[in-house]
Design brief:
globular; N-(1-d-carboxylethyl)-l-norvaline Dehydrogenase, domain 2; eight-stranded mixed sheet; single chain; alpha/beta; 316 residues; Rossmann fold
C-alpha cells in the first residue's frame, strides 16, 4: 500500500510524464494532466517505450511494466484531474507567474488533505502558494531521468507540519528512491550547488590551460566519482583521515573560482551550433549517431550502475 494512492501530475512534459511513470511503478494510480492535448498524446505514446527500456535494462519485470501502464490515465481538465488526488505534483514550466497562477487555481480544487509537491528546479515557490495550501506544500525536486536517478530533494514549507515532510520521505523511500531532506530552501539544493562548484573549477582548469577536456573528465570519472559514489564526501573524509584533511585545508593553497560565469568555450560552442548531444556535438563530437540512440546508451549504463550500486548500499 502506498502513502499516496492517487497522484496527479500537472504538466506532462519531458519530466512530468516520467514522474507519472515513477509513481505508477511505485503502485500509485496516476493522472497526467496538461493544458496541451498534443503533449498528453505524446506522453501516452512515450510511456510504453520507456517501460520497454526499463524491462530491457533488467530494472523491472514485464508484468510490472504492464501493471504500471494500467495505472496511468490522462486528463485535459485540471478540476477533473485533481478531484481525488492525495498528492498533486506540479511539473509545469519554470516560471513564477505560471506557477502562482496554477496554485491559485488549485486552492479551491484540491482536496482537504491533498499535498502539493512542486518539482521546481530553483524557485522558492512557497511565497507563491496561497496561505490555505502552504501548510501542506513541499518542494519535491527530482533529477532526470527520474526512473534511473534515485536522488530526490525534499524541502517542506516553512509553515508545514513536520509530519508532512516525514510522510513524503517515507513514501519516496518506499518506492525505492533516495530522498534528502533540506532544513530550508536554497536555490540549487545540494547536488546542483556542488555541481556548480565542480563546473566552475573544470572551466577554470580548461581556460587556464591546465588540461584538456578528456583528461579533466577522466580525473572526475576514474578518481573522484568512483569513491564518491560509494561513500559521499563526509565518509570519504573519514577514510582519508580528518587530520589529513584539516592539514590540507590549512595550507590555504586552494582558492575557489570567483562567481560562476561559465567559460568562453561555452559561448564559442553555442555560436557554432554545438549545443550538445541533440545537435550532434558539444564539448565532444558525436558524429552521425542518432541522439536518441546516445540517450539510450547513457540510460543503459546508468541502469547497470544503479543495479551495481544497490549491491553496496552502505556496507562501509
Amino acid at each position: 500500500m502506498t502513502t499516496y494512492d492517487n497522484v496527479t501530475i500537472v504538466g506532462a512534459g519531458l519530466l512530468g510524464h516520467a514522474l507519472g511513470l515513477v509513481h505508477a511503478l511505485g503502485g500509485c494510480r496516476v493522472i497526467l494532466q496538461d493544458i496541451s492535448k498534443e503533449r498528453l498524446n505524446w506522453a501516452e505514446g512515450r510511456l510504453p517505450a520507456l517501460l520497454d527500456d526499463l524491462v530491457e535494462f533488467g530494472l523491472i519485470e514485464k508484468t510490472s511494466a504492464e501493471a504500471a501502464l494500467t495505472r496511468i490515465s490522462t486528463s485535459h481538465e485540471l478540476d477533473e484531474a485533481v478531484a481525488e488526488a492525495d498528492l498533486i505534483v506540479e511539473a509545469v514550466v519554470e516560471d513564477a507567474h505560471v506557477k502562482q497562477e496554477l496554485y491559485c487555481r488549485l486552492e479551491p480544487l484540491a482536496g482537504q488533505n491533498a499535498v502539493l509537491a512542486s518539482n521546481t528546479s530553483f524557485l522558492d515557490i512557497f511565497p507563491l502558494v496561497p496561505p490555505a495550501l502552504r501548510a501542506r506544500s513541499l518542494i519535491v525536486h527530482w533529477y532526470t531521468p527520474p526512473y534511473l536517478i534515485d536522488l530526490v530533494d525534499v524541502v517542506p514549507s516553512p509553515v508545514a507540519d513536520p509530519e508532512v515532510a516525514t510522510k513524503m520521505v517515507g513514501f519516496l523511500r518506499g518506492i525505492g528512491k533516495k530522498p534528502v531532506l533540506l532544513k530550508k530552501f536554497v536555490p540549487g539544493y545540494i547536488a546542483n550547488n556542488i555541481q556548480m562548484a565542480i563546473e566552475s573549477e573544470v572551466f577554470r582548469l580548461l581556460d587556464t590551460g591546465v588540461a584538456d577536456i578528456v583528461d579533466i573528465d577522466d580525473a572526475l570519472r576514474f578518481g573522484l566519482s568512483q569513491r564518491l559514489s560509494l561513500m559521499g564526501q563526509f565518509k570519504k573524509i573519514d577514510y582519508t583521515g580528518l587530520q589529513v584533511v584539516r592539514d590540507i585545508h590549512a595550507t590555504g593553497l586552494y582558492t575557489p573560482p570567483g562567481k560562476p560565469t561559465g567559460t568562453p568555450k561555452l559561448d564559442e560552442k553555442l555560436a557554432d551550433g554545438s549545443s550538445g548531444v541533440l545537435a550532434g556535438s558539444g564539448f565532444y563530437d558525436y558524429g552521425d549517431t542518432d541522439a536518441q540512440e546516445l540517450f539510450k546508451r547513457r540510460d543503459s549504463k546508468l541502469a547497470r550502475l544503479k543495479l551495481l550500486m544497490s549491491e553496496f548500499e552502505d556496507d562501509l
